[in-house]
Amino acid sequence: MECLWSGDPRVRVLLGKQKLPEEGEKIRLSRFVYFLYSEGRYLLFHTLTRKLLSLPPQMIDYFADGRLFSQDVLAREVPAKLYEDFFLVPESTLESQIYLELMDVLRLKEELPRGITQYVILPTTTCNARCFYCFEQGMKYRKMSAETVEDTLRFILRHKPKDRKRIHIHWFGGEPMCAADNIDRICAGLNKAEIEYDAEMTSNGSLFTEETARRAFEAWKISEIQITLDGMAEEYARRKRYTSSIKDPFAAVIRSMHLLIAAGIKITVRLNVDENNLGEAFRVVDYLSEEFTEEERKKLRTYAHSLFGQLGDGLNACPVDTGSDALEARVVEINEYIRRRGRMAPDMDAVFRLKTHYCMVTAPECNVLIDADGQLFACDAMPEYMRYGSVKTDIDPDAWKRVTAPCAVRRECGECVFLPQCTEFDRCPSRMAYDQCFRQEKRRLDRELRAIDAFYRERQNKQRDAVETAGGKPIQ
Fold this sequence. Notes:
- By secondary structure, the chain is an alpha/beta fold.
- Among the domains are: about 1-95, no CATH class; about 115-350, Aldolase class I (TIM Barrel, Alpha-Beta Barrel), CATH 3.20.20.
- About 40% of the residues lie in helices and about 15% in strands.
- Strands 12-11-10-9-8-7-13-14-15-16 form a 10-stranded mixed sheet. Strands 1-5-4-3 form a 4-stranded antiparallel sheet.
- Helix 5 (about 145-160) links the parallel strand 7 (about 120) and strand 8.
- The protein is globular.
């Protein structure tokens, strides 16, 4: 058994070493242990402590069959170590309760800022594309009025953090660049008021010019933009279905990416994948590697994500894959290909640090979404039961109580291996379909653990090669 990562130090300090069980109590595997087979060995990951172990197959067979063990098993070295680190627990352990208590302590120690510091703002729901998978299909197109823009600016200034913490704004839509004038006005007001802020944007990337790219970096203080590429030129145009104002959409987006990187903005490319464009994803990865210089690629990140549960409206009405295991396996292949082409190290902190806030709902005191009508929401999915006021009338006290009321752990979630990296929020709209959120978390963790495992293997191979080059002596 090999330890690849010792876990989140904050969790290790708070939990300490597990106490021995009561006399006669059986031992079982923790519900928070996730197994992943990877190239001849099993990765054993604890989703609460964030500790990662590597085990040979015969060892995992012993622990993964759902058996109960007598306390005699703790006399052996490996089970004793697994018990000490909470991979094995007493049969009666209420692990969801341990998780909730631990999160309460971590959140208390965080000392959230007094005031709102995180904004998702929709300057418009208008978009110049008609993506067949867009979750906003059927939504009424509207743009923030001049009055709502001014009310939004006043709301932000009224709720600015008392301790002068930096504000972060995520420009979303629709296509935010369809309302660049609204972004201009809000940012100009923040700059005039000397409010410290930074920003990011989700955009299709089709409407940037050299001037707006420069403005996005300098005046709007945008550091990163996510842009979706679903394939090369023909497939991209077929899926995005731009209005006639964009003659060559793929070329326009690539040009924008060059301009944005030159201005100083990082680009994250998301490849939306279903069974109809798998080959296109690989072509896009190769194209980006050739189209952008080595220096430009320092500000360019790419990842693949599967489409699921969407209907192919506008694509001959053919349904896309609904998250099958076969599709997910191909998405893993694409992400591994991206990693190899880019020589990128995985984000260790994102995997091994326990998140205290899964989404904006878990910290509504400092997070808010403002839609194009100026309505305030505690969730970026914008369900009506999460609306609690407007920028014009401010926060409604009764609605605020409803939004922030204590929540219980859903029955399905209490037994879920992914609870510590998901959310206990029982009114979460993404948690209404348990199987869907389970697949989502599994997909993400599989991708991250495989990338980490490959990274460790490559590093070990380099170290071995270096030793052999030095004639068998370790290089100092």
